[in-house]
Amino acid sequence: MGALQSASTPSSCVDIGAIPPASSIRSWVWLGCSRRPAKRSTPDSVLERGSPFTNRYHEEYQPSGPTETQLVQSLADDAWRLNRAVFLETNLISMIGTAKAHLVSTDTGEGQESMAFALVLSEHYKSLATLGLHQQRIARTSKQTLQLLREIQAERQEKERIEMRRAACIYLYQVEQNKAAGNTEPYDPATDGFVFTAAQIKQHLYREQLYSDARNANLKYRSAA
After folding, report:
1. Which residue in 35, 80, 139, 224 is deepest, having the highest Cβ count within 10 Å?
2. According to the per-residue pLDDT averaged within each range, which of 57-71, 78-92, 115-129 is highest?
3. Number of domains in the chain
4. What pLDDT score was predicted for residue 121?
5. Residue 151 domain boundaries
């Protein structure tokens, strides 16, 4: 995943022979979970608007207006942070566990890995607990953001449905009035304060008529059966 690949890790992760002290690891965990990349303007930034990672969220939620756009961006940011927290947790266990494996003597490789994992838990439980708390906090924030986004979008979409019904009704009336008056100029919904274009209203009327025809045909088939 792009977010995981972009998460920065300390140089000590590369050299497993030099394990930093627990206090340094806790500091690294805290900074790694709470900080965002220093530069958001780089072309390959996974959090930059227009990047493939962020675009997936904008394509899914289709925000309208600055408030919805900001909420969707926050969802993408939280997802990136959560991915990075998991990445740090995995690397921490792998890095320390690999370095500690030679200290454990067992008959099987699986047993050695289990004992090494137990050593990691016993020596770095504070760092792992910090990661767990960060993951819970990020997940909770993301859930609240998603709930707020859905509430705002539901309210906007309901208003749009009401306005579209009104616009369609006035559109049909104005078209008939223009025909009766011999006016060939097409009706512009903006003159009556609507944000919809004539093409959007026509598409809405077409779908409504198509749905009505399909419903009537289904009722006819059922009554004949």
Report:
1. 80
2. 57-71
3. 2
4. 61
5. 2-158
Q: How many CB atoms lie within 10 A of CB 76?
A: 22
Encoded tokens for 184: 């060939």
| Amino acid in the structure at residue 27 | S
Question: Same domain for 25 and 98?
Answer: yes
Q: Which two tokens stand for residue 30?
A: 């805290």
pLDDT of 80-110, one tens digit each? 989 888 888 777 766 655 555 455 455 544 5
Contacts 24+ apart (CB under 8 A), 164-169: 164/196, 164/200, 164/201, 164/204, 166/194, 167/192, 167/194, 167/196, 167/201, 168/201, 168/204, 168/205, 168/208
Structure tokens at 218: 């289904």
For 135-148, letters b (16+ CB in 10 Å) and e give bebbeebbeebbee
Phi (first) and psi of residue 84, to 5 degrees? -70, -35
The verdict on 135 and 178 lying in the same domain is: no
User: What is the signed CA dihedral for 203, 204, 210, 216, rounded to 10 degrees?
Assistant: -170
122-176 pLDDT, tens per residue? Answer: 666 677 778 888 899 999 999 999 999 999 999 999 999 999 999 999 999 998 9
Quote the CA–CA distance of 97 and 130 in Å, as a whole number: 18
What is the spatial distance between Cα 142 and Cα 100, in angstroms, rounded to a whole number?
Answer: 36
